[in-house]
Amino acid sequence: MRILLVLFTGYFLVVLLAALAQRHMLYFPDTTPPSSDNLQPFYGPALEVWPTTVDPSHRGYVSTETPGDPHSRGTVVVFHGNAGNARDRRHYISALEQRGYRVVLAEYPGYGGRDGTPGEATFISDGIETARLALEAFGGPLWIWGESLGAGVAAGVAADKSLPVAGVALITPWDNLPDLAQALYWYLPARWLIRDKYDNRANLKGYLGPVAVLIAERDEIIPPNHSRRLYDALPAPKRQWMFPGAGHNSWPIDLSASWWGDVSEWLEEKRLPSASFKKESPSAQEARRAISGENQCR
Fold this sequence. Notes:
This protein has 298 residues and is α/β, with parallel strands linked by helices. The protein is 40% helix and 16% strand. Helix 3 crosses helix 4.
C-alpha cells in the first residue's frame, strides 16, 4: 500500500505540473522587439513593421520591396508556428510576393516585442483584427495561411463570418489540440487538462471557401494522421498535398518549389466569389471610421 501511495502521489504531482505548465509547453515566444538590425535580411527580404511604427502596437511585418505587378492577386496574412517570431518566416514573402501577392507576416501578442499573453482566445481575436486591417490597407482577395499552431489561429480567423476570406492554406495542421495532446502524452489525462482547444475541425466546419491542407509525411511533432483527420472532416472544396519524407520543420521552403504555385493557383480557382474586395481610398476609410466612432458613442 505504501508503494501504491507513493506512485499515486508521484503521478498526481506530474499531472498537476503538466496542468500548470501547459502554456509554457505550447508557446515558445521570442520576445525580441523589431530593430534596425533584425529587420535587415540574413536571408530573404528586408522587413518593415506593419503598421509602420516600432512599438508594442505593431501587428507584424511586410517587405520593404514589392515585385513587378505587385498585389494583383490579393493579400496573404500568414500566422506562424509556436516558436520564434514572425520575422523568422521571411520565406513566405520570398515565395508568394514573386507570385503577385502582398504578404503580411502576422505577429502574436506576447511575441516579437508585442504586449500581451499568449493564448487561443487572444491569438484568434487579435488575428481577426490583423486580417481586417490588412484587407483595408492592401485590398483583396484576402487569403489566410497558417503553419502548425498558426493553422489553429488561421482556422479561427477564417471562421469569423465578418471577414471575406477567399481561401485558407494550412501547413502541418492538427485536427484539435486535446486529441493531439492525448496522443502525444498518452500517460496523462491530457484531453481533460488542456485549456486552449484550437479545434480546427469545428472552426472550419461552416467555412465555405477552399481549404488546402499540406502534410509532412514524417512529421514527428504533429503525426500525419491528425492532419488527415482534419482533411477528412472538412467540407468541400478541399485538397491535400503531401511533402514526401519531410518532418515538421523540414518541409520545402525553397521559393522555387512547385507546391507554392500549385497551392495558390488551386485556391484562386476555387475561391469564394463573394470574397472579392477592393481597397478603400483613404478618404473612404476615414469616413467609415468616423461613422463607426459616432455609432459607438451612441
